[in-house]
Amino acid sequence: MPTFDDLLTRARALVHARPARAVLGIAGSPGAGKTTLAERLVRALNDGDEPWAVHVPMDGFHLADVELDRLGRRHRKGAPDTFDAAGYAALLRRLRDENEDVVYAPGFERVLEQPLAGAIPVPPSARLVVTEGNYLLLGTGAWARVRAALDEVWFCELPEPERVRRLVARHEEFGKGHEEAVAWVGGTDRRNADLVAATRDRADLVITMTCLQG
Fold it and tell me: DSSP characters for 80-138?
């Protein structure tokens, strides 16, 4: 299993392998540790005079609740068709190809559970974009264009009991009651997790998060 230092070396190699900006994807089921790993990587890579790595999460492309209500999909929030996959793919292509101006990416506010436009600046000096989300390896619809825009995709996995425990705790932290959180994890999140797990074999690297060492 790779250590965290191994992952840093691999991430740096992506930048050295191509003249343009590199884009690294981190995929995995809800609660598997994608965001934690992405943030840790970016912090470690930027441990110098000038930051050159930026974290751009897929969650900024959640459709707003008002649109999910209009479409009748809010009860399935987090499913593939509750994101703007085509917009996400377009941003990734722009990030790869454009490095003369600042590119603004959307963020996601977990307290509000809403996307925030223009929240993440990607400056021309950024040589690596680390993006993470559930569906980076999905091969259907506009999601197929996402994988094509990524230099590598790493897949995070966690033993199921621990993944579920963490996911329930996260839902509770951001406002759901315990029973509601358990029901959501066992319903909507479980269906999404099964879909994501089926894409594991398309990853360039599989990381078992419990074995990851610094």
Answer: GGGB-HHHHHHHHHHHHH--SS-EEEEEEETTTTEEEEEEEEE-TT--EEEEEETTTT-
Give pLDDT tens digits for 152-173.
Answer: 999 999 888 888 788 788 878 7
* CB distance 95 to 23 below 8 Å: yes
Q: Could you tell me the pLDDT band of residue 20, with boundaries at 50, 70 and 90? A: confident
DSSP string across 20-86: S-EEEEEEESTTSSHHHHHHHHHHHHT-SSS--EEE--GGGGBPPHHHHHHHT-GGGTTSGGGB-HH
Q: Which CATH superfamily is domain 4-210 in?
A: P-loop containing nucleotide triphosphate hydrolases (3.40.50.300)
